[in-house]
Amino acid sequence: MQYGLYPSCHSYPTIFSITQNQHSRYALKGLPSCSTMSELKQFHAQIIKLGLSCDNDAMGRVIKFCTTLESGDLNYALQMFDKLPNPDTFIYNTIIRGYLQFQLLKESVLFYSHMLERSVSPNNFTFPLVIRACCIDNAVEEGKQIHGHVIKFGFGFDKFSQNNLIHMYVNFHFLEEAKWVLDHMYEKDDVSWTTLISGYAQLGYLAEAFRVFDSIAEKSSVCWNAMISAYVHNNQFHQAFALFERMMSEDVGIDKFIAASMLSACTRLGALKQGEWIVEQVKKSRIDLDSKLATSIIDMYCKCGCLDKALQFFKGLPRKGISSWNCMIGGLAMHGKGEAAIELLKEMESERVAPDYITFVNLLSACAHSGLIEEGKHYFHYMKEEYGIEPGMEHYGCLVDLLGRAGLLEEARKIIKEMPMSADVGVLGALLGACRIHKNIELGEIIGKQVIELEPQNSGRYVVLANLYAYAGRWEDVANIRKLMNDRGVKKAPGFSVVELEGVVSEFIAGGRTHPQAKEIYAKVNEMLDCIKSAGYVPDSDGLQQDIDEEERENPLYYHSEKLAIAFGLLKTKPGAVLRITKNLRVCKDCHQASKLISKVYDREIIVRDRNRFHHFKDGECSCKDYW
């Protein structure tokens, strides 16, 4: 019997097959050393010389290298595929994965169809890839057909395929279909449960999310965290705390993910004591302090008004990731510490940590809150000149805010006109806010109308323009703004303030009387106001006339939410204790002045975090120096 050197791909004599397998094993040893397509092509040439160009095992590995995003060449992989007489399932899966990695989603699904046309059977690795392609491409009809194929080919009980189907239906917002898949799964895992819980939560269906969570017989920490995170992301902080307490009562250990979620809840509520308790648990449990958790702790301290503790924790970190540096600079910005933020940037550079896009957003924000005009302009240009970072929308927003707060409205307007992109609502909103501060009615009206059309459901945008009209005495225009809001169904955001005392968070709304100690609180407010009147306090009736939404206008100035929170704090704490208030709206002019005098008369430090920044009231002064 005679054998050619290059036999046909369609028939291999037994003796040659053994030789070929030996050659294949020997040849493939060199594949891991390939790092570029140039090296891979040389390796491919050796494969051809050895007569292995039709061998699925050899060519499958070569094709796999070509489909990697970092150094591959998908077109080259397809050329090799076309020359294979009988590509197997592994090779089809490899090409489908390649299309997916290169974000060629429709091609992934079409190649799966080609696979079926060639009568090549898919396996449990095929379907997760194709389902993922349908999910990312939002290919609803194709996704439903693939679901049918999963069942048809006998993978109805395959956990990976089923989990991907749940994720796909959640992405399509088909939550009933996602739940059907979950209910019919033979073996559910954490991915199954948490994908559906998160899907319900993303659409605001927290009751349904909780029902799914509560149906889990044995809840892992991953499932607990999914439900806690669902509450936190939907601003249901009290429910998050209640669930966390239930988790602790059931002896479920805290991990870094749960710690980060709860710290986020503490941050949003300004619940310092509870946040500090979480930090202690992290230390006691020796939880790995990764970059995300470290940043969460810094953020909690900063946003609960403890800048010194944030700095102490930051400086004690053995390793500081870029997110920790950025968070600390952002914290200094919120507290109006612009000079300190600049010094921290210099320290960051001295430690050879390269600042990024977010670093300069936070730094420019720090300059804006501190009135550092020249420094802000310098760093706006410095980031591109030194680090090649092109200014983005957020950087322009900070620059406009910086110039606008300083009264340089025309310069700010010029910046907007010369931007390389169209200004978004954030940039225009910064200029509108500056028009409110400096009472520039003409420019404010122009910008205000633009902002309202860009963000028609944001009540705050209407309010700023209405306040400008009110200041100018243009009451007919004020009425028109109110009518426009009513016609569009825009509801005003109610003002509220929260204060944490002895680990308990209490919430107050303007004029609200639902608190169990409402009678004592209102009596304390009246006493408080009588005391500061003797120190020179005069109610800012002008502020009442203008700030028609910062607290509901029908509520007397005296009973704005932060005044109620401060009164409650004075009632419940010992003399000299620091009061920490968190407010969802901008502090009005009257409350700002009142808080300064209360800090002096009662010898208290009062720290208020409003929508934009922190105000540290002490000895009759505010850390913002009335620059806010």
Quickly describe the structure.
63% of the residues lie in helices and 4% in strands. It is mainly alpha-helical and 628 residues long. Helix 22 (373-387) runs antiparallel to helix 23.
Q: What is the overall shape? A: globular
User: Which strand order does the major sheet show?
Assistant: 2-1-3-4-5-6
Radius of gyration: 31 Å
The average pLDDT score comes to: 88
Spans of at least 5 consecutive residues whose pLDDT stays below 50 are 1-19, 543-555
Largest sheet: 6 strands, mixed
Which assembly state applies to the chains in this document? single chain
Task: Compute the number of strand runs.
Answer: 6
How many DSSP H or I helices?
32
Structural class: mainly alpha
As a percent range, the share of strand residues is: under 5%
Q: What is the helix fraction of residues, given as a range?
A: 55-70%
Terminal residue distance? 95 Å
Structural commentary:
α6 runs antiparallel to α7 (126-137) and α26 packs antiparallel against α27. This protein has helices at residues 14-28, 37-49, 56-66, 74-82, 89-101, 105-117, 126-137, 140-152, 159-171, 175-183, 190-202, 206-214, 221-233, 237-249, 256-269, 272-284, 291-303, 307-315, 322-334, 338-350, 357-370, 373-387, 393-405, 409-418, 425-438, 441-454, 459-471, 475-487, 518-533, 541-546, 561-572, 589-601, and strands spanning 496-501, 504-509, 579-583, 606-609, 614-618, 621-622. Among the domains are: 391-493, Tetratricopeptide repeat domain (Serine Threonine Protein Phosphatase 5, Tetratricopeptide repeat, Alpha Horseshoe); 496-541 and 555-622, no CATH class. 63% of the residues lie in helices and 4% in strands. A hairpin with a 4-residue loop joins β4 and β5 (614-618). Residues 1-19 and 543-555 have low confidence and may be disordered. It is built from 32 helices and six strands. A six-stranded mixed sheet has the order 2-1-3-4-5-6, covered by helices on one side. With 628 residues, the protein is mainly α. Pfam families: DYW_deaminase (PF14432), E_motif (PF20431), PPR (PF01535), PPR_2 (PF13041). Keywords: Repeat. GO terms for molecular function: RNA binding; zinc ion binding.
